[in-house]
Design brief:
Helix content: 55-70%
Strand order of the largest sheet: 1-2
Number of strands: 2
Number of domains: 1
Order of helices and strands: HEHHEHHHH
Largest sheet: 2 strands, parallel
Strand content: under 5%
Oligomer: single chain
């Protein structure tokens, strides 16, 4: 009986850890891939949306969300190595891993990816007079292809 209570307390304590504090000394090595896949899918989803491709936008959101949930599970499960953050996890992830739920955190990551795309080298800002709808669509389609977005998740 005592062992069950102890196991329950340990499990509860571990489940309450914030994701940013859930590092492990060892790890699976796939956390970096999951984070990169999430970030890339969200960036590409933004481009697909601007380009008017609703099917690709939806597909990439779903793929990014799935990989992001897996990343958060790895992180909360203590399977992410500190080295993964330094070497493989996109920089914005580190500052965005705080929030009440995985969905909230993934929403923040999507918003950050969107902001990065909209402020990127291909100016596709809505308030820029030089970017008419057709030019914005063309710019988004070109960047979508340049980033190899059609390959993500296939």
């Amino acid at each position: 009986m005592r062992e069950r209570v102890l196991v329950g307390v340990v499990a509860l304590t571990l489940s309450c850890l914030s994701p940013a504090a859930a590092f492990a000394e060892g790890g699976t090595g796939k956390a970096g891939f999951l984070a990169q896949a999430t970030w890339s899918a969200f960036e590409c989803a933004v481009l697909a949306n601007i380009a008017g491709d609703a099917d690709e936008h939806s597909r990439l959101i779903d793929y990014g969300y799935d990989k992001g949930q897996k990343f958060m599970s790895e992180l909360r499960g203590g399977k992410v190595k500190k080295e993964d953050f330094a070497d493989e996890v996109p920089d914005p992830f580190i500052s965005l891993l705080k929030g009440p739920s995985n969905d909230f955190i993934l929403g923040r990551i999507y918003q950050s990816a969107e902001e990065e795309i909209l402020s990127g080298e291909v100016v596709i800002s809505e308030d820029d007079e030089m970017n008419l709808d057709e030019e914005r669509t063309d710019a988004a389609q070109k960047k979508f292809k340049a980033l190899n977005c059609p390959l993500i998740g296939h």
